[in-house]
Amino acid sequence: MLQFVVRRLFGALIVAFGIVSVVFALIHLTPGDPVEVMLGESATAADREQLRTALGLNEPLGRQYGHYLARVARFDLGQSLHVRRPIADLLRERLPATLTLAAAGVAVSLLLALPIGIGAALRRGTWFDRGALAFATTAVSMPGFWLGPLLILVFSLWLGWLPVSGRDEPLAWVLPAVTLGLALAATLSRIVRAALLDVLAEDYLRTARAKGLRGRAVILRHALANAALPVLTVVGLQLGALLGGAVITETVFQWPGLGLLTVEAIQRRDYPTLQACVLVISLAYVLVNTVTDLLYGLVDPRLRLT
Fold first, then answer.
1. Residue with the larger pLDDT of the pair 90 and 304
2. Is 259 inside any structural domain?
3. Can you name the residues that pair with 79 across neighbouring β-strands?
4. How far apart are CA 290 and CA 288, in angstroms?
5. In terms of domains, do 20 and 126 share one?
6. Which end of the chain is more exposed for a tag (fewer CB within 10 A), N or C?
7. Of 88, 32, 93, 85, which Cα lies nearest the Cα of 275?
8. In terms of domains, do 50 and 195 share one?
């Protein structure tokens, strides 16, 4: 077990190092002069030179890369050019909102996917199964930048049931969480159905029924436990994707999280903040996938041998 954990952690460190390097390269390979973009054409040569020196752009690229790695290792992400505050403080303020929104999106997806997927598997070929397929096809086809405004139009403007934006009251969480979790619910419902159908054909379930267990107990105790492995994998992978996908949802609902901070950094041409946001989102994705991989190894001992 220890070797399995060490291998997975070592692989995660390699991927994290690659992400740090790619983020640095993308920022520096972007066409144009960032100093010119930040200050505008009306800035004086002295102002440009001062900002270029402050950002370390006068140094050779290799030295800039070394300084960047050292700062990341110290969790020093620099200072925002717009608000003149440490970027680490901005991320510390915004990241909890993004994490809670992603968790709410996963909760919505599980609340929808589990009953729909289980019902479709137990009623294979019936109207319920066909309706579950129609739900999955429709939900996965609706992008967040379209679904979010549609939900605001219907439930906020027309019906007046839910707030348009904010996160101070519980009802304000509903629309962002549904927008973020609906596509995942569509995918999970089909995975739950397929996994449960595979398990239902196993001999040990017939043995459990022969011993007198009721249908509900057989499904909950035996079938779902063994069908949970692919569901766990997809939830873990998609949780990392939700952190990045929250950029659109947070922008639509003005959710004060990391995604909205990324969009604000783009609009304000705050390159250090944008660089830090992309880095944190990418590393969070790697962290979530690594934890999922370790949990999968705990659930399925066969993976510890790989």
1. 90
2. yes
3. 86
4. 5
5. no
6. C
7. 88
8. no
